[in-house]
Amino acid sequence: MSAESGRSRQWLLTLPSLAWLGVFFVIPCILVIVTAFRPADLQGGVGSGWTLETIHAVNDPSYLPIIWRTVWLSSVTTIVCVALALPMTFQMARVGPRMRQVLLLFVVIPFLSNFLIRIFAWKSLLHPEGPLTRLLHWLHLIPEDALLLNNVGTVLLVLIYTQLPFAILPLYAAAEKFDFGLLDAARDLGAGPWRSFAKVFVPGVRRGLISATLMVFVCSLGQYVIPQMVGGASDEMLGSKIAQRVFADRNLPHASALAAGLMLAVLVPMLIVAVWHRFGRKEGSA
Amino acid sequence: MKRSWLPSLITLVVVVFLFAPLVVLVMNSFNASRFGGEWDGFTWNWYEKLWAANEVWESLAVTLKIAVSASLASMILGTLAAYALHYFRSWLQDVHQMLITLPLVMPDILMGMSLLALFVICGVETGLLTIWIAHVTFCLSFVTMVVLGRLQDFDFTLIDAARDLGATRAQAVRKVLLPLLLPGVLAGGLLAFTLSIDDYVITFFVSGPGTTTLPLRVASMMRTSRSLPVINALSTLLIGSTFLLAALSFRLQRRT
Amino acid sequence: MDGFLVIDHVSKSFGSLRAVDDVSMSVAQGEAFSLLGPSGCGKTTLLRMIAGFERPDGGRILVGGQDITTLPPEQRPVNTVFQNYALFPHLNVWENVAFGLRMSRRPREEIRSGVDRMLELVRLSEHARKRPAQLSGGQRQRVAIARALVNRPQVLLLDEPLAALDLKLRQHMLMELNAIHEQVGTTFIYVTHDQGEAMSLSDRIAVMNNGKVEQVDSPVHLYETPRSSFVASFIGDANFFTGTVVEMQHEGYVRVSVEGLGSPLVLSKGTVSANQTLRLMVRPEKISLMLKRPPSGERVNAFRGIVEDIAYFGSHTRYRILAGEHSILAQLQRSRFSGGDIDPVRGTEVWMTFHPDEGRVVMLEGEA
Asked: Are residues B23 and B82 in the same domain?
């Protein structure tokens, strides 16, 4: 096989997906950033010319609480999801193949089930006249007129619920490849179960851990359906604002500016991870 | 060696946590009571109402049309991409890899928003085509990952063996690589199908009047409290079919 | 160069590594030939070049007079039995074996009779409809052999054929391979790192090291008259000594002075000169042990030592004996120990002897 035909084969195979993603992913992202610098059209489109007005408008301090809420909700969600996923994938990787398939199925089915349905399930579960509320009333765990819905706690709960599979699956993939003999070795050398978990297992699934953290955090940052459906009026996240600007206010440039900001917030952790991987590979991986 | 019970407990709690709401949904779809607070008796009522709700079935048709065509397109593009990523090492593939990985981590709202911006600026009307394009775009990466996984497990000495026995490169690919790769490609396609059917946010951004997919229909139903119990019935059916599709995809991925 | 398969000054480098360095050899038609050497010696690269998966940087490869150096694998009259067998998992045994014939578009009848006949040869006819995953390791290997042979190649390449098999199966397959070779008569080329395998299977062996061929000879000659210390130590075990020529006698016998061993009489195939520094080799099983000093004589090589270590193997016993600076390996079958009923133990002083014919002069590595 000559070098020439090898090169043209590579281009031939790479071009379809590369071109598709270039046109329908890269260009749109660039367009969003570009649109942030354009004025809004009265009919809800994009006007001509350039302006920094939108950027100034976005600098509004009233956005700060929303941004802060988005960040802390995402962070808490990430921490809780990862904290639950670590022991769970640890267990999943240890059990026999039968049980493992069953557990995996248990995780995957909710994951693949319709997103809206899962939110709806919680809405009806937490409904003031729903079973859970009545149960908690009966157990005197919450006061008579407390509402389980439409508050920030519910948003957090449903966020964790929907993002949990995104934490479990990459961690499971890493845990499956983990050599559990290493834990035996650690125990043999005197480490207790907690320490061997923390010092041997967790570093051992490092790659999956990073993927899981990244995915959950980034996905949570962009959520808007959940706060919209189970949150109150004061529980908006950044995503809700973007959706509002696009559909309610019909102000594309404004929405683009917000979206561009979100895009940057998403790209930064990803770049950090990518750089880490590059350097991690150079010094040899575990 | 003493094993801690904590991981098993957490696993159990998580599984119950993940499944409980769905179980409640399924139960409530048969519950005569409107709010599912108490059990009012078994009924098929909601399923009957669902059967009669034409707008639901119309939206299902739209959804299926898009899902099938989007899966097919992303299967083809994804398989080519996976082959390129696996077989070649160059700066081109580094860029290619990054481009394939980005959509996987990009939040839906950004994808939807950016595609909408593209369509608005190019003056393309939102409708079936735009939804199809959006779906192929985000499914592509998933299919690539699945097929790439299969390729990495593939024993390429089989290609050498085929050539040693007289097959040209093209024949070896046709008669040995493709048949063995097919289950992986189908598993990827099935995943794409499921993701496409399920998508709400991106579709919301790029759909137009007259193209209501099932998730969009469900969302609007959720806003009118009249139709709430019917959603339970619909949800049960959807969960059931997800279960079947997931099981099928699993079996396809396991066959060596 | 004469021969059915001719390797003519073939070289191949990967970057700065010369994997195959100006290698030439010729194999006769119908011969069972082995490429033997440690990993990294270039044998696998050479095999891949014969099969067509690598292109030589220089030199030619000829089969039956035809230059196949630049032909792609699918056009060569050569078939390979791969180390991991590479059976197509999605085809059953019959279809696997028929694959090559199907590729060359042979008529249906010919394919059917060819495959059936080959399955009979390897005794797998009743497993024809099974998938590779349902077969044992030995059965899979026989399918791989059948799949290759059914195409009547002019040369059959076998890459580490016995490596994946356990001991009992290995001994069995060894006999089977020899039987198949005899029946089919095709030129077989084995590639292996196991000298026992090579010795049992081959008419001739090419011992390779660092990309070069050290010696091509029959197993007997390689063992009895190795031309370099590498070959001597790679094939079987060997004791090496360095000494200076003291006296030259006729018919190649030389007396060499070796520190700690006295001046044994040894045999040299080539010419030596006075005071030349030589390397000697004595095989462990050629050394006899006795408790008392043997009677001296012109053709008696005897020297003293202390037993360092003993390893019992059932059919034979190995002794490590310290003589001066040398740690010598001697291997005795039980019946050969003479000099009393007392077995030597660690620390016992013993006398070692070997016949002059068994003391061979070998070349050092790098010598011409």
From this structure: no
